[in-house]
Every structure is written in structure tokens, then in C-alpha cells.
């Protein structure tokens, strides 16, 4: 993602954070969310479920009391004098998915609500796809495609309905951190390419050392540790703009980073182990300003299908990842991703050459290549990645990097700065939370399998995109 995800509003009664011990106040029952495996020529249903990230959960004393280990944006100093002691003293509990978090799952459809007013006000959520009761579903997508339906019609400027992959551990980190007693069953082990510092527990201990509350979010903070790992953003979007972005890292799995290896903003941004910028394909940013939005080629006023293909150099599961292609399907018609209309950049898919040309044309640092490019991203998928689905607002940059003009210190007319039609004064969390509490995103019909197996590639083509795809840039069929 292009920003740290500080996503919840907590009350003094319920501190929705992550933990390593397990509480007994609320049973943990994972809502069902069916997915489909289309690898064998015919799609078959999988009895997969979802689990809420532990960063949202109630964290309380593990001695049987209900004393909070975290309230507002601070840890309880008595229970959490240091990270190890906090892990021993504190327990995470089960979740009331719909009542507390506004998460509704039925059949193959998942809806995430933005603001839910229960015993406390909850903002946003993040869930993972599970295989069984104790482990995340692991995806290995080289030479494969991944497909889902999405409805972003109720997502205004400033919100991000995100579906992506993270190189998390299948068990949530239990095997490598013995102090982690909760594991994937309770949504532990999160990491991404932003090396977020707002994760309350990393590698089985609290991130309480050096923790400080956020200056603009009364319920968020950051510690000395960051949680780094590779990230593949299949989908970051609202009804105005969308982007898909690989973020490779030079590490394997989760790394609890400190100092410059975290690549924090400022002088160290490009010194870290992960590519925070990524190589994004945002049609608007690439000059196709009538492709995505209400009433446009991909009409965001109604649901549509998103297909992402991970092409390898030799068309096998073991070859190097060499290209990421995007296809949309809406109203029975296949819509190809539009070719770049930006000067000096060609192509309608993500390749190492496309990324190098884009970085040069937009004056951006090519940290993507430094971190290993598509080959490194493919190696993450070869090891296995976890599917993440979320809805969040952005306390760091108001999501301007997604749907407006960004960065703010650049001329809005400079190449690559315009990413959508939202104004630079939009997306402020206090405004979005007050004016759009009922915003939702719906993900459904998750499918994965061989190239061409998850959608009807023979469907009638839609009207041509703003620019014709280059030779060889079409989607692949089975």
C-alpha cells in the first residue's frame, strides 16, 4: 500500500489491538467465505473462511480481569512495561464480526462497512482468507490468474477498498515466535512493504518500546519496530480511481525492522529492505482519464470483475515472473487494460521495462528494480502469500496518492502527478468518517487457477480503450 494503515477508532472500554495470548470472553468463529479453485479445468468450491486482523481486537489482561492493555493510543504501562512482559500479560479475544466491525459474509460475498457504531465506534477493517481453523490460505500465483468481483460504487474520494497479497506466515508467526499463542486463528503476523510501525505486536512481542501516539489519530500510534514483507496490491480503489502495484522486498517473509532498514519517510525512504513506492498501473495516471469511473469504460456505478494474470518468462509455474496483466469484465464484455498514453511510456501491463520507463518519465526513484523487480515479486509468490481484504481511510496522506494529485510539492500538471479527479482538499479522515460512515466495499466470487480458467475470455469485447494495446499485450487465454 502507499501509506501506513491506521484504521480504527477505539473506546476506553474496548481497545481493538493485537495480542499474543488468547482470551475467553468471546468465542472466535470465522465467517465462511467460499472461494473457487479452477486449476483442474473446472472450478470447484472451497470451504474457506475469513479472520479479522488482530490489530482490531480487544486486548486485555490475561489474568481473568478485563483491564485494558491498550487504551486510546497508549499501552498500559503497568501491564506492558516492555514487549515481552506485555505479551505474557495480555490476551486477544474473539470478534463479533458484524455487530462490532460491520463485516458481513454470506456464500461467496464479503461486505466491509466503513464506520460501525456498536459498543464503540469502529472505523475500517482488515481480514484474511483462511484454509482451515488455524492457517491462512497460501497463494502461489506464478503462471496463474486471480479473479474477483467488486462493488466500489459506495466508496468516495479518500477511501481505499484494498484487496492484496502479503508474504505473511501461514500460521501467523506461531512457529517462529513461541510467545505468540494466538496465531492465524486470531489474525496475527501482519506485514507489508510499508514496514508499518503501527502494528501492536510483531514477532510475538508488543511493539510498546518507543511507542508514541499519533498526532492526528487519537487511537493510533507507532513503535520502534516495523513489520516488513513483500506485498502485491491487486486492487486499491474507490469509485474514482484504481491502481495495481507490486512491491518487492530484498528479504524473505516478515522482518521486524529497525532504523534505516525500515525505509521510513525522509532520507531513509529508499534505504529500506522493501520498495515502498512500488510500480503502479493507474489508468488515470497513465493518461487514460475516461477509462475508470462512474459511466466510463469500466463503470464504477455497478459491479464488475477484475482479472489479474501473473505471466512467467517460460510460461511455467517455476519460471521467473515477467509480466502482470489486467483484464476487466462487465456486463458480459471483456475490457482490456488501456495502453499507456504517457509520453515515453508504452504498454498496458506491468513489466520491468514498463516500470523503468515510467520511473524515468515521472522522475521517480526506481526502487522497484533495486528490490529485485518482478523476479523478486514472483519469488514471494513461489513461497506463498496471504490474501488480504480491507477498507480504510488514510491519516498520513488522505489517499491523495490514489485519487488526486500527489505529491503535494509537485506541479499538478507534471507527468505522473495526477492520479484521479478528487481535489487536493479531499480525503481527510475527519471529513470522510463524518460524511460517509455508511460507505462499503463488496468483494465476491474469488477464483484462481490456470491462465484463462477463471473468466470467459471469449466474451464480446467492450469498446476499445482510450489507446490500443501494443502488439503482444492482449490477455492470455487458456
From TrEMBL:
GO terms for biological process: cellulose catabolic process. GO terms for molecular function: cellulase activity. Residues 1-19 form the signal peptide. It comes from the Eukaryota. It is an enzyme of class 3 (hydrolase). Residues 459-478 are annotated as: Disordered. The keyword Chloroplast does not apply. Pfam families: Glyco_hydro_7. Its EC number is 3.2.1.-. The keyword DNA damage does not apply. It catalyses: Endohydrolysis of (1->4)-beta-D-glucosidic linkages in cellulose, lichenin and cereal beta-D-glucans. Keywords: Carbohydrate metabolism, Cellulose degradation, Glycoprotein, Glycosidase, Hydrolase, Polysaccharide degradation, Signal. SUPFAM superfamilies: Concanavalin A-like lectins/glucanases (SSF49899). Belongs to the glycosyl hydrolase 7 (cellulase C) family. This is Glucanase.
